[in-house]
Amino acid sequence: MDQPDGKRLYSYAEYLEQERASPTKHELLNGEIFAMAAGTPDHARLCVSVGAELRAHLRGRPCAVYSSALRVRVQATGLSTYPDVGVVCGRLERDPEDADAALNPIVLIEVLSDSSEAYDRGQKFAHYRRIPSLREYVLVSPHEPRIEVFHRNEDGSWTLREARAGEGAQLQAIGCTLSVDDVYRDPLAQAAPEAEG
Predict the structure, then answer these.
(1) Backbone torsions φ then ψ of 73, nearest 5 degrees
(2) PANTHER family, per this entry (predicted)?
(3) Distance between CA atoms of 16 and 20, rounded to whole angstroms?
(4) Residue 163 falls within a domain, yes or no?
(5) Is residue 25 part of a domain?
(6) Torsion of CA 100, 27, 77, 147, to 10 degrees
């Protein structure tokens, strides 16, 4: 389907066909397909660090931590994307059109980047808020030890809590606290002088 401005709009089935054949990840938004930017080494380290901390906290509980390999679909808006880290508790609900897409994350985490920060804070968060199961949206700064937790209240409003170095980011929805220092600890930075010598 083409728009009057010449842009081609894709159905979800067309998007899936292209996504399965592509070596890179893409996001579907309002019928348009967008390539997702590759991350930096620091971005990748922070994603894994957050995921590992969550997994350790959730061990023995009926919750799973997913990497950015898991596609999440927002049925209310049509957004299909790959959050940096996601948590699903109970049972993974799969999209009827796409068995590889989750519908029911309870926590979504994005490690910010200069190129995506405005989108992650604005339009993407607006889409994520339409996921009925979502209770917390977490933003991890790439420039300083700072984790922001947006928590959905009983009345549907959202409250921001921020944690910095020496503090813990509380994730009430899953009953755990992320140590900001542990998330940002870079073992390679600490080992660098020894490796060079």
Answers:
(1) -115, 130
(2) GLR1098 PROTEIN, RESTRICTION ENDONUCLEASE DOMAIN-CONTAINING PROTEIN-RELATED
(3) 6
(4) yes
(5) no
(6) 90
**Six-digit token string for 197:** 């010598």
Residue 167 DSSP code: -
Residues 24, 15: Cα–Cα separation, whole Å: 13
The count of domains in the chain is: 1
Identify the domain containing residue 136 by its residue range. Answer: 39-196
pLDDT tens-place string over residues 44-101: 999 999 999 999 999 999 999 999 999 999 999 999 999 999 999 999 999 999 999 9
**pTM recorded for the entire structure:** 0.88
Dihedral sign for Cα 130, 134, 136, 142, please.
Answer: negative
Helix, strand and coil percent figures for the chain, each rounded to 5: 30, 30, 40
pLDDT tens for each residue of 139-195: 999 999 999 999 999 999 999 999 999 999 999 999 999 999 999 999 888 665 554
- Residue 5 resides in a domain: no
Classify residue 2: in a domain, yes or no: no
Query: What's the CATH number where 160 sits?
Result: 3.90.1570.10
